[in-house]
Design goal:
This protein has about 130 residues and is mainly beta. The chain has one domain. Helices cover about 10% and strands about 40% of the residues. Strands 1-2-3-4-5-6 form a six-stranded antiparallel sheet. Strands 7-8 form a two-stranded antiparallel sheet. The radius of gyration is 15 Å and the shape is globular. The chain starts with a helix and ends with a strand. The N terminus is likely disordered.
Amino acid sequence: MRACLGLIMLATCGQAQAQSPGPDRPPLVPSREASVLYRLTKAGTVPSEVRVTTRAGGSPVRIDMEDRTYMLVDQAARTMSIVIPDEQTVLDLPFQAGPQTPFQLNDRMRFTRRSPDTVAGVRCTVWDVL
């Protein structure tokens, strides 16, 4: 899942002092505020972009879609708001994170450590997600 690469890079930046993720996987939530642009591709379709912004600790999360629609997810409060500006609509829903929650890492995923990189001046570890 190449789309997850950006989030994983940012999630692991600056982790050496805060916590040791171990050799087999990165921390599952970022240690600092992060904004990641995912470029999603699927054979036979037009690529799309989704921006995910989160605070340190992973909540709340804002997920911006290409069509100006966005979601606000607060895992601690177990709430999700879907905002559709063009229709002046807000849908407030309960939220329960699970293993298939989009744009969020979980302990059921398989990770492969890649070469290090520098993002915004911070040394990071790059991970692939399977």
